[in-house]
Amino acid sequence: MAAKKKNDDKLLAQNKKASHDYFIEETFEAGMVLTGTEIKSLRSGRANISDAFATIRNGEMFIHNMHISPFEQGNIHNPSDPTRTRKLLLHKEQIHKLLGLSKREGYAIVPLKIYVRNGYAKLLIGLGKGKKQFDKRETAAKRDAQRDIQRVLREKQKVAR
């Protein structure tokens, strides 16, 4: 019997602003085409996806403005542009689905996080519908109310002991 491979995901970068600005309706896992020593730089946590966005051109998906700092100990094959456009690897059906869904008003393809799974760098992208200002305030109010409820419950548990 073959040993089962561990499926431990190591989080490398996260876009916390995405959940604040968008309602994430659906997520997809995509591979990335990286060159040179970009994977080494990613593994050392030198990536930023807060300003990144994804587009679909000619049936292929690309990520723009994703910043991966050059690896210091790299060789001459290091990419010179840290924010270059990178190709994402998705199934054709997934790309067509995302293309159809993102064409609707107010929807965007947003990168959520970068992680390593089984030795490969993966990008979790989500289909997001833009939040209005009152939606953002409502979300913040719900989060504050939930935090207050948890605080009261913790205090009651301390008194019960």
Walk me through this protein's architecture:
It comes from Paenibacillus nanensis. It is found in: Cytoplasm. One of its GO terms (molecular function) is RNA binding. Strand 4 and strand 5 form a beta hairpin. This protein folds into 2 domains: about 120 residues, Small protein B (Small Protein B, Chain: A, Beta Barrel); about 30 residues. The chain is globular, with a radius of gyration of 20 Å. About 30% of the residues lie in helices and about 35% in strands. The strands form 2 sheets. Strands 1-8-9-2-7-5-4 form a 7-stranded antiparallel beta sheet. The chain has a two-stranded antiparallel ribbon with strand order 3-6. The chain is built from 4 helices and 9 strands; from the N terminus they run βαβαβββββαββα. The mean pLDDT is about 85. The protein has about 160 residues and is α+β, with helices and mostly antiparallel strands.
Write the layout of secondary structure elements.
Layout: E1 10-14, H1 16-21, E2 22-32, H2 38-43, E3 47-48, E4 53-57, E5 60-64, E6 67-68, E7 86-89, H3 92-102, E8 107-117, E9 120-130, H4 133-160
Antiparallel strand pairs: 1-8, 2-7, 2-9, 3-6, 4-5, 5-7, 8-9
